[in-house]
Design brief:
By secondary structure, the protein is of the alpha+beta class. It folds into four domains: 9-189, Alpha-D-Glucose-1,6-Bisphosphate, subunit A, domain 3 (Alpha-D-Glucose-1,6-Bisphosphate, Chain A, domain 3, 3-Layer(aba) Sandwich), CATH 3.40.120.10; 194-342, Alpha-D-Glucose-1,6-Bisphosphate, subunit A, domain 3 (Alpha-D-Glucose-1,6-Bisphosphate, Chain A, domain 3, 3-Layer(aba) Sandwich), CATH 3.40.120.10; 356-459, Alpha-D-Glucose-1,6-Bisphosphate, subunit A, domain 3 (Alpha-D-Glucose-1,6-Bisphosphate, Chain A, domain 3), CATH 3.40.120.10; 466-613, Alpha-D-phosphohexomutase, C-terminal domain (TATA-Binding Protein, 2-Layer Sandwich). The chain is built from 19 helices and 27 strands. Helix 4 packs across helix 6, helix 6 (191-201) runs parallel beside helix 7 (226-233) and helix 11 (345-355) packs parallel to helix 12 (370-377). The longest helix has 20 residues, at 144-163. The protein is globular, with a radius of gyration of 25 Å. It starts with 8 loop residues before the first helix and ends with a helix.
């Protein structure tokens, strides 16, 4: 009989446990908070929930016969999280099908074919001091409707482990597995990698990209060896470059000037031995979001002009106190004979959906308006959702139920989701309703090659809307929530607020009218007052027109009368506040983002202060 005075695990811990929060892409947290105890609880809780909902396996197998796929990215902390996840899988009575370091979409595709739930250890694009875990059901991604049940099951596991006598617990006082309690990971199974390669080899022509030269920026992306093989199978000349042992956080949705300069330097370096370069491509850390840049040769006159401007900029940089190295790097970028053109993920998606002959499209509300303009001309429905793969997946499922056959979606980060099997080039591309990076890269390159166009020429055919995105890190989540609450209409079903001359019109997610308030209605006056507050910051002297509409489906998306759009949205599980901007020129979209993230008095910080002062 256990001595009741024996301390429990919770009483013995020498730290205060931090429960992980669920976001749009699973759980992400600081590595220091992702103890073995926490990761074990997350995993076992998810397994119990999926078992209770019959979403752990598509087959009726005894627990010991169920081999659960597990993979991770190349972050320094990933191995620790893999072992803690494996321990929970073993304790649940299942086996581990260890796939090693593998892109998230490769793991997901393999698990779907096996009809088995799976776990991916990744922090995607966020800094190396953070990591995360993403659980999948046997039929695809965990949906928002699953979240409450998983959270409850995880908390139940936590409490069970906390209540165990410390001597009987596998965890030490630091929340880590005790010596002898850490499991040995099985040998890596390469079947998932081969299956992912074959997925694309079976539908894309072997010589479809013959003559195309691609620089693949490897850094520490988990697909840095696998994806170049897939591109080579399609006939491209792939030049791997920039391999790194250190993890570099690259956000394909908000690529920085620093990264663009680095990638240009990489392209210039590879141009010397290899000649013409057609594209620079890469992915985020877990290789489910693409990065695509076109390489443009500068005309002679522009080269001369840029060279003169680079010389002036070099001198100004030195006079401003910049180091010689930094000034020289800037000079080399501006004086380069080539330029890189970044293609945002929401525009990539247009080209990919068109190449696949999609008949139904789902995109987040933050996407570039060019998507609406392009598919409206083709009479193809575009569904707007909240940001995050679970929401666009739900919209794809609804489209399939309505009878659409070639159903796709994508996010502003470029991750492309295939909701249905699609016949392509005499083969069948099977559904993968989860973010994928290599499919959009392949489709865009093939579309350009088949039309004998450069990437820039291909994208120049799209409607003239340009986007940019940026974020502020370490932004109070409390302040972010205050911004959202301040502008959210009182009616729960309302997502659109439109400001007419004589009334305020409220619409639901499908833009159906919910209410119309004349200007003398107190509710209309309250919304107009909030609009005027917003207008003080997004003012005419900063280049903004009048606020015409506000969307609160996910964040606060402001539409201005001069075709400017500014969308403010906090991260679901990180202290970050993002701003997305769209405008009719790239220069203007960039300027909106720059004004938004400027420190300490940019639009985002000022916005939060203004609402705080108003008692929001």
């Amino acid at each position: 009989m256990t001595d009741q005075t024996e301390p429990t695990l919770l009483q013995s811990l020498d730290y205060q446990p931090v429960a992980s929060r669920f976001g749009t892409s699973g759980v992400r947290a600081l590595v220091k908070d992702l103890t073995d105890l926490e990761v074990f609880s997350l995993t076992l809780g998810a397994i119990r929930y999926l078992t209770s909902t019959a979403k752990l396996s598509a087959y009726d197998l005894p627990p010991s016969q169920l081999q659960m796929p597990l993979a991770g990215d190349l972050r320094p902390s990933t191995d620790q999280l893999l072992r803690a996840t494996a321990r929970a899988i073993f304790d649940a009575g299942h086996g581990v099908d260890y796939l090693g370091k593998l892109p998230t979409p490769a793991l997901t595709y393999y698990a779907l074919q096996q009809g088995t739930a799976s776990f991916m250890i990744t922090g995607s694009h966020i800094p190396a001091d953070r990591n995360g875990q993403k659980a999948n059901r046997c039929d695809g991604e965990v949906m928002k409707s699953d979240e409450q049940g998983i959270v409850a099951a995880v908390e139940a596991v936590r409490q069970e482990e906390y209540a165990r006598p410390f001597k009987e617990s596998p965890f030490d006082l630091h929340g880590m597995l005790k010596a002898g309690e850490q499991p040995q990971l099985p040998l890596v199974d390469s079947k998932a990698e081969q299956m992912y390669i074959e997925r694309y080899r079976s539908v894309f022509p072997t010589n479809g990209l013959k003559g195309i030269r691609i620089v693949f920026y490897q850094y520490a992306a988990v697909g840095r060896d696998l994806l170049p093989r897939i591109l080579s199978n399609a006939g491209a000349k792939v030049i791997p470059a920039g391999r790194s042992d250190a993890f570099v956080p690259i956000d394909t949705e908000a690529i920085s000037q620093q990264h663009l300069h680095m990638l240009l330097a990489l392209a210039l370096e590879q141009r010397k031995p290899h000649g013409r370069i057609d594209a620079v491509v890469s992915t985020d850390g877990d290789s489910d979001r693409p990065l695509v840049l076109g390489v443009e040769e500068k005309p002679v006159l522009k080269r001369i002009t840029d060279l003169a401007g680079a010389a002036v900029g070099f001198l100004k940089s030195l006079l401003a106190g910049q180091s010689l190295t930094a000034a020289r790097e800037l000079f080399d970028c501006h004086a380069a004979p080539i330029a890189l053109r970044f293609f945002p993920g929401d525009l990539l998606g247009i080209v990919v959906a068109d190449y696949l002959n999609a008949d139904a499209v789902s995109i987040p509300i933050s996407a570039n308006p060019a998507v609406d303009d392009y598919f409206e001309q083709k009479s193809i429905p575009v569904r707007k959702t909240r940001i995050g793969s679970p929401h666009v997946i739900q919209a794809m499922q609804e489209a399939l139920q309505e009878g659409y056959r070639r159903v796709v979606s994508w996010e502003a980060n470029g991750g492309f989701l295939l909701g249905s099997d699609i016949e392509l080039n005499d083969g069948t591309l099977k559904a993968l309703p989860s973010r994928d990076a290599i499919l959009p890269i392949l489709c865009v390159l093939h579309a350009a090659a088949e039309q004998s166009k450069t990437l820039s020429e291909l994208f120049d055919t799209l409607p003239k809307w340009f986007g940019a995105a940026g974020l502020i890190d370490n932004f109070s989540q409390e302040s972010s929530r205050a911004i959202l609450e301040f502008f959210r209409p009182p009616e729960e079903q309302v997502h659109w607020t439109e400001f007419g001359e004589d009334e305020v019109v409220l619409r639901d997610v499908n833009q159906t009218i919910v209410a119309q308030w004349p200007n003398d209605d107190p509710r209309a006056q309250a919304m107009r007052q909030k609009r005027e507050m917003m207008q003080k910051l997004f003012s005419a002297d900063k280049g903004f027109g009048r606020v015409t509409r506000i969307n609160t489906q996910d964040g606060v998306r402001c539409y201005f009368g001069n075709d400017n759009i500014a969308h403010i949205r906090p991260s679901g599980n990180a202290p970050q506040l993002r701003i997305y901007a769209q405008a009719r020129t790239q220069t203007r979209a960039n300027a909106i983002v720059a004004m938004g993230i400027a420190e300490p008095d940019g639009l985002l910080r000022s916005f939060a202060r203004l609402i705080e002062e108003a008692g929001g």
